[in-house]
Design goal:
149 residues; 5 helices; alpha+beta; 5 strands
């Protein structure tokens, strides 16, 4: 019985690691692997199942939860903002360059207290104030503020 409790603990911890990594990595996929790991943890506590069965159950529950629930859970957790609402929140706003940004050299800017990847067709030095003129998903397109007026 202790062997199966150990397996349940391992699966629970693995699920927790996936859950924490979800906050660090974009994409909203790792959450469902956490769910799969937690399902296996519960199954390991209740049933005497082999490692192969545990792995199979993990893969099946993770994939099925991604297919069935990803869009629904993402809308709940992230809100239902349209692209135009998101653009209204960032376009025309200013940030501060944290690194050099230039043609062919993406850099980082500080915007709303968070570091964002940014791209520009103009040279921008660290510390320079920038205007956000567009975005490509989570990549911000910026221009030096002095040239954006």
């Amino acid at each position: 019985m202790e062997k199966f409790q150990n397996a349940a603990v391992v699966w629970f911890v693995l699920g927790f690691v996936f859950f924490i990594l979800e906050f660090l990595l974009p994409g909203f996929i790792l959450f469902f692997f956490a769910v799969g790991a937690w399902v296996v943890a519960i199954a390991s506590l209740v049933f005497d199942i082999s490692l192969n069965t545990q792995l199979l159950l993990f893969v099946i529950t993770s994939v099925l939860s991604i297919i069935a629930l990803r869009k629904w859970v993402k809308n709940i957790m992230m809100g239902r903002k349209s692209n135009s609402e998101i653009e209204d929140e960032i376009l025309g706003r200013t940030g501060k360059a944290e690194t050099y940004i230039g043609p062919g050299n993406d850099g980082r800017i500080e915007f709303k207290g968070t570091s964002w990847t940014a791209r520009s067709n103009e040279s921008i030095q660290p510390g320079e104030i920038v205007s956000i003129v567009g975005n490509e998903s989570i990549l911000l397109i910026v221009k030096p503020l002095k040239n954006s007026a």
